[in-house]
Amino acid sequence: MEHLYLGIDIGTQSVKAAAFNASGEIRASAVEKQYMDTPHPGWATEKADIWWEKAVQCIQKILKNISAEAVKGIGVDGVCHSPVLVDQDGELLQRDIQLYCDKRNADIVERCRTDYKARGIWEETGNVPACNWMGMKIRWIKENEPELYEKAACILSAKDYINLRLTGITGTDPSEASGTMLLNQKDSSWSKLAVSYMGLDMEKLPAIRRSCEIMGTVTREAAALTGLKKGTPVVAGSGDMPSSLYGAGLIKPGICVDIAGTGSVIAVYSPCAVLNEKIANLRCASPGWSPYLSMDSSGGAYRWMRDVMCKYEMKKAEQEGISSFDYLNRLAGAVPPGAEGVLFLPYLQGERIRGSAYSKATFTGLTPASTTGHLARAVMEGVAFECRASLELLDPLDEAEFVILTGGAAAGTLWSQIKADIYGKPVKILKQKETAAFGGALLAAVANGEYKDEEEASNAVLKFEDEFLPIPENQSMYAELYPIFEEIHQRLQVPHEHLAGLRR
């Protein structure tokens, strides 16, 4: 019987599960949609019990096509930086969980930015205060919901909670731990200095295990609910971003990966954290670090534009029997590069480190001649410009020869070509599309002895299916527009902070 490995991905817009063999070939998959809630300006939440409910549904669907006996290991990934509080019996203490893009803790972040360097937190953790870090979110809970904080026996991440439901065991991995801003970056242990600085309790933090380490096995209760075989090994796994990066081949220097999903991530590989105040650092799912920058609305911005501005276009797409995104891509493709001066700044949910948490999305350059196609192309280009700014910070010596593109935006040729033109370097498209679930499954395969380590596994399965080369005339146009994009970005920082004060 062929050995299969199950990857479970708790994403922002969907929960996915896929079964792979050790060569990376998919044998079965399932997906369940879900949606982010925004109950207040700057807030973004999802329900932890819904994550588990949809994960169970996906597993059940997959096991209609494969045998539970064939599944030799499970690797879970999930939305990073989302604190899930459980009591001593492992029961949820709250349903609505802060997501990575939730900015309600902006005031706490600003307070911490006054002295984090002087107190040694930067050198200890490798990161600057930002709204996305889970430690900042936990601090918000302690300040604003103290009774809830006191009841918590353990504070987990999204994938840690799914692991708890599968195995009955609490724990986390270095990638998620580094995303708390509470990890000692030198030895990957919890930092007493950082935990004390944030005013939190060390005993509420879970044990840290290597991402490919078996943390437990499927319990009798989880087996009865899902159809999985009792005793199936479950590895510690990683956050969804590190899992995607691992599944996309980020395992050694000189590699750059662009994950284009609801949000976007530009990441490179480093043997250690990079101390630059404009750069964030996460531990990889494999040994090493991923210096990165991210935006919280990229594919999400395109979806927002479709949902809010394109009712007519959605109806036309339905009449033609095509995807609404394919219809918009067609309109955008008919507009020349640069969208005839229409620019979009993609900060629907603020910025993390490069700019202010109070930043907001902006269209500029609109005229009576601007069409839906101009807006659609401007959104694509605005996201790519922001990614280029990240790439320049992460790879100042221009050592990356190409960029590996994965995620939903990689499915269409237009956005991939726009990125190649704006980056000024080849963009390679992975054959494997589900890199997050794939990364988790590959970690489970390593744990089962299919490969000697994470690097050997990645080298054995990494394959590309397409490549986009920069078009010189487009590259020249974007080279002129990019400084204008950056100028607008900088000049709007203060007005956005003033607007945030009015909203409060």
Question: What does this protein look like?
Answer:
39% of the residues lie in helices and 19% in strands. It is of the alpha+beta class. The termini are far apart. The chain contains 19 helices and 22 strands. The mean pLDDT is 94. The chain has a seven-stranded mixed sheet with strand order 16-17-15-14-20-21-22, with helices on both faces. Strands 3-2-1-5-13 form a five-stranded mixed sheet, with helices on both faces. A two-stranded antiparallel sheet has the order 4-7. Helix 10 (240-247) packs across helix 16 (435-447), helix 11 crosses helix 12 and helix 15 (413-423) crosses helix 18.
SSE arrangement:
Blueprint: E1 4-10, E2 14-21, E3 26-33, E4 45-47, H1 48-62, E5 71-78, E6 84-86, E7 96-98, H2 106-112, H3 121-125, H4 134-144, H5 146-151, E8 154-156, H6 158-167, H7 174-178, E9 183-184, E10 189-190, H8 192-197, E11 214-217, H9 220-226, E12 233-235, E13 238-239, H10 240-247, E14 256-260, E15 264-268, E16 280-283, E17 289-295, H11 299-309, H12 311-320, H13 324-333, E18 343-345, E19 362-364, H14 372-394, E20 403-406, H15 413-423, E21 427-430, H16 435-447, H17 454-461, E22 464-468, H18 472-491, H19 493-503
Parallel strand pairs: 1-5, 5-13, 14-20, 20-21
Antiparallel strand pairs: 1-2, 2-3, 4-7, 6-8, 9-10, 11-12, 14-15, 15-17, 16-17, 18-19, 21-22
